[in-house]
Each structure stands twice: as structure tokens, then as C-alpha cells.
């Protein structure tokens, strides 16, 4: 099975191509950056360095492609404006579809929870209202989904949009809690630590992507929420991390409102389509905390 992975050298892409290589897939790994040295000789992986948004994709020399896993694009971060998100996310999506929509009938897109904005709900389903005006990033991700809808309507095939929650390892609140706990500094939590958000180990997201490659269902555009589906408050996370680290850090609960409210996915659809089981979120956070602690010990 030949798979083209766009964004192959990124946060998700590196982990995905390793998994696909081990699984015996033929992989065409597409990246804008220099190919990481440790990935250059992965069995079954052929690297292409190209800026899709700027140059498109020359498909003449490519073999038959059974599926496209589209992970390329920009995420939230400082110094990124509307034009950057337009180019990196939407234009990349359009160019990729223009090149490949007639060569494969299966696209899998790494979308994001940001398309729902700030729903303040503990069971967000795929039919929840979408909020493209919550940020330029959210706008670009939802517009990318709309482009996929268009190409699916025009060319047919199966287009899956995996709306991913935040990752435990993604540099968010869990890393903040661990960093503070390791240094013994006070942990400060908005809204008295009551906000509950959805998180997932990145390896579970990779599990879903590989499972999606074998999904034989609806030939349509289909969004699917991918998260833990488990509600744990910021205060509970902080207590869990500090206990695992045996940290003396104090947890200071602030009355100030949080910029984000509750957000937990309903993952019934993912469980049904992909036999997805995220495991225990609390245990995943404990495991990651131990990993970070061991890394510090090793220096």
C-alpha cells in the first residue's frame, strides 16, 4: 500500500512515517524542510523536498498512490498572520488536491479542535456549530476542510477530516505543569483550576491515522473527532503531576477567568469507525510526567 504523507518532517509526520515504515507501507514523505538525518534511511520511505504551496506537486514521477495523509501546514504560534495561514494551510491543501485528486480516492486530513471555537461543553460531537472566526488559524483549518469538501464533490472518493484535540506532549498545559513541578515553582491556574480540556497522547493520534487507512466505509467527506473523551480539570491535572513528581510546588488557584472554557470531545464516531480506544488520560499524563522526569535526571 503506497501512502503519500505531506508534512512528513513535522511533529506528527515524523512519528507517522516511522510507524508506516515499520508496518511495511511504501511511503512517499513530502517535506518543505531538510530531511532529518535519522529518517533518511527508513525502509520503504522515499523523501521529496518541495514547497507545495509555492510550487505545487509534479506527480508524473510518482507511483500509484493508495492514500494521502495531509499533515502539512502551520499551527498556532507567535508572529503568524492571516496571509501565512492562508498560504501554509489553505493553499497547500488546494495544491495537494489539485495534484492528487485524480490519482487517489482517499484523503485523510489532520484538522483541529479549533474549528469548534470555544464551545464550553463536555461532549462536543461532529455536528456542533463551527466557529471559523475564533482565530486566523481556525479559519484556515475550516477553510481547508471546505476545500476538501469541494474536491470530494468534484472528484468523488473518501475524504476524512480528523479533528484532533490538543496533545499531552504538545507544549501546552501538561508541559507547563511538569516544568513548574520539576523546578518547584508555584503553579498558577485560571478559573480556580476548574476548566476541563481534552488531551491525547500523540501516539494515539498516530494509531487513528493508521486505522483510517483501512477504513472501508462512506465515500464522502466525513469529519471525525479524535480525543480522549475524558474530562479532567486543570487542578486535577496539576495535582496528578505534582504527586507523580513528588514536587513541593504550590498550586495557586486564580479567580481570573480562563481564556478557554470546557472542551471535551464525544468520540463515539471514532470508536465506531476505527475501533478507537484512547486509554486512560490520567495514566497517559502520569506516563509522560515520568518520561520528562527521567529526561531531566539523564541531563
Automatic annotation (TrEMBL):
Residues 3-227 form the NAD-dependent epimerase/dehydratase domain. Gene3D superfamilies: NAD(P)-binding Rossmann-like Domain. InterPro entries: Epimerase_deHydtase, Lipid_A_modif_metabolic_enz, NAD(P)-bd_dom_sf. PANTHER family: BIFUNCTIONAL POLYMYXIN RESISTANCE PROTEIN ARNA, UDP-D-APIOSE_UDP-D-XYLOSE SYNTHASE 2. This is NAD-dependent epimerase/dehydratase domain-containing protein.
Amino acid at each position: 500500500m503506497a501512502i503519500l504523507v505531506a508534512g512528513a518532517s513535522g511533529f506528527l509526520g515524523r512519528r507517522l512515517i516511522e510507524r508506516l515504515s515499520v508496518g511495511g507501507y511504501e511511503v512517499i514523505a513530502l517535506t518543505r524542510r531538510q530531511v532529518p538525518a535519522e529518517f533518511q534511511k527508513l525502509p520503504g520511505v522515499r523523501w521529496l523536498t518541495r514547497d507545495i504551496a509555492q510550487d505545487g506537486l509534479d506527480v508524473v514521477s510518482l507511483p500509484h498512490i493508495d492514500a494521502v495523509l495531509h499533515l502539512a501546514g502551520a499551527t498556532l504560534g507567535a508572529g503568524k498572520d492571516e496571509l501565512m495561514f492562508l498560504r501554509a494551510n489553505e493553499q497547500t491543501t488546494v495544491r495537494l488536491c489539485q495534484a492528487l485528486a485524480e490519482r487517489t480516492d482517499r484523503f485523510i486530513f489532520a484538522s483541529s479542535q479549533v474549528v469548534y471555537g470555544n464551545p464550553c461543553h463536555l461532549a462536543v460531537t461532529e455536528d456542533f456549530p463551527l466557529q471559523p472566526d475564533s482565530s486566523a488559524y481556525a479559519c484556515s483549518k475550516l477553510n481547508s476542510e471546505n476545500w476538501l469538501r469541494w474536491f470530494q464533490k468534484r472528484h468523488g472518493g473518501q475524504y476524512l477530516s480528523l479533528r484532533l484535540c490538543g496533545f499531552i506532549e504538545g507544549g501546552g498545559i501538561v508541559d507547563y505543569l511538569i516544568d513548574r513541578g520539576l523546578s518547584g515553582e508555584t503553579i498558577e491556574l485560571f478559573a480556580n483550576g476548574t476548566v476541563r480540556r481534552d488531551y491525547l497522547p500523540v501516539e494515539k493520534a498516530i494509531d487513528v491515522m493508521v486505522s483510517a487507512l483501512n477504513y472501508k466505509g462512506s465515500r464522502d467527506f466525513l469529519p471525525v473527532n479524535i480525543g480522549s473523551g475524558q474530562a479532567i480539570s486543570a487542578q486535577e491535572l496539576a495535582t496528578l503531576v505534582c504527586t507523580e513528581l513528588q514536587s513541593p510546588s504550590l498550586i495557586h488557584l486564580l479567580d481570573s477567568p480562563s481564556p478557554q472554557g470546557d472542551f471535551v470531545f464525544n468520540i463515539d464516531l471514532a470508536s465506531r469507525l476505527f475501533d478507537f480506544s484512547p486509554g486512560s488520560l490520567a495514566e497517559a499524563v502520569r506516563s509522560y510526567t515520568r518520561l520528562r522526569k527521567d529526561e531531566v535526571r539523564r541531563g
